[in-house]
From TrEMBL:
The protein's name: UDP-N-acetylenolpyruvoylglucosamine reductase
Enzyme Commission number(s) of this protein: 1.3.1.98
SUPFAM superfamilies from the UniProt entry: FAD-binding/transporter-associated domain-like, Uridine diphospho-N-Acetylenolpyruvylglucosamine reductase, MurB, C-terminal domain
UniProt xrefs under Pfam families: FAD_binding_4, MurB_C
GO molecular function: FAD binding; UDP-N-acetylmuramate dehydrogenase activity
Length: 341
């Protein structure tokens, strides 16, 4: 049953665990419920915030208007061909549970994205990625509801305008559409991505030889890596990686390399080099820093944490201090991956 509540605490609905309230709050489990909610006269002109898993947002204040928790479920195979299988996934499906579903059914492509917090609907909006794979490589199309009209629209892959941790839903169409389902194209024959991060090293430690390599083995390796260095939001409030890895011109990278020989970098396109933000933050001296209940995680400097009662503004102030420090030391701007409200 569709219910609209007043003055609801959002602490349980975000992984940072920040104390903030919503003026109005509703949870929807179907497209029909969502369309009905959007058509309610008293709510039509209110500002609206969509929440999936709440794993990529930092709240610095109470949220005016209506907060909608998307809990649209369902995973179904919609078609297949000789090479691929296509699955339609409700926006509220937990991302890691979706990855495990694919691994269990031997649908290849998502295994490197194991244990990323969040939901299927938020994945293309943010274009999540890890260990050499980005979700844009897997999206066939998605469906979304126009917030103003309640009409459903299909977005082909090209319509989403994917970029590094970017999509059209973070820019031109921000706040205009609500993603309700995503159709992913998975491979029947896997292509293994093991040359990123510590995947190959972890596979070796697990005794996985080339003849035993599988998408399940890679998924297990990624889970092991992430659990070893990333805090569990159920224990310490966080939103995973707080900053995006910056890309800088190759000439700038080469100049910095003479000053900082250990500086890691990964060539991308058009003469750019991607530099790990976590390395920059650690070298600037922030790893393990804590002020009150706001801190930088002791095992992964890319993660800002709430040890209990930090406010959103305290976390934001820390983030800004980290940004300024990295810029002073390296001349590199690092930008938040997390949405700040």
């Amino acid at each position: 049953m569709l219910t609209v509540q007043r003055a609801v605490s959002l602490r349980p609905y975000t992984t940072f665990g920040i104390a903030a309230n919503a003026d109005y709050f509703a949870e929807v489990a179907s497209e029909t419920d969502l369309q009905t909610l959007l058509q309610l006269p008293d709510l039509a002109k209110m500002p609206k915030l969509m929440l999936g898993g709440g794993s990529n947002i930092l709240l610095t204040r109470d949220v005016p208007g209506l907060v909608v928790k998307l809990s649209i479920g369902g995973i179904e195979v919609v078609r297949e061909d000789d090479l691929h299988i296509y699955i339609r996934v409700g926006a509220g499906v937990n991302w890691h549970e979706l990855v495990l579903f694919c691994v269990d059914n031997n649908y290849a492509g998502m295994e490197n994205l194991s244990l990323i917090p969040g939901t299927a609907g938020a994945a293309p909006m943010q274009n999540i990625g890890a260990y050499g794979v980005e979700v844009e490589q897997l999206v066939d199309h998605l469906e979304a509801i126009d917030i103003n009209t309640g009409e459903k629209r299909r977005f082909a892959h090209a319509d989403c305008q994917f970029g590094y941790r970017e999509s059209v839903f973070k820019h031109e169409l921000k706040g205009k559409y609500i993603i309700t389902s995503v159709t992913f194209r998975l491979d029947k024959t896997p292509t293994f991505h093991t040359r990123y991060g510590a995947i190959q090293e972890t596979l070796d430690e697990m005794g996985i030889t080339d003849d035993k390599l599988s998408i399940r083995a890679i998924s297990n390796a990624v889970i092991k890596i992430r659990r070893s260095k990333l805090p569990d939001p159920a224990e310490i409030g966080n939103a995973g990686s707080f900053f995006k890895n910056p890309e800088i011109p190759a000439a700038q990278f080469d100049a910095l390399k003479t000053q900082f020989p250990a500086l890691p970098g990964y060539p991308t396109t058009e003469g750019q080099v991607k530099v790990p933000a976590g390395w920059l933050i650690e070298q600037a001296g922030w790893k393990g820093y804590r002020h009150g209940d706001a801190g930088v995680h002791a095992k992964q400097a890319l993660v800002l944490v709430n040890y209990g009662r930090a406010t959103g503004n305290e976390i934001l102030a820390l983030a800004q201090q980290v940004q300024e420090s990295v810029n002073r030391k390296f001349g590199i701007a690092i930008n938040p991956e997390v949405n700040v409200l």
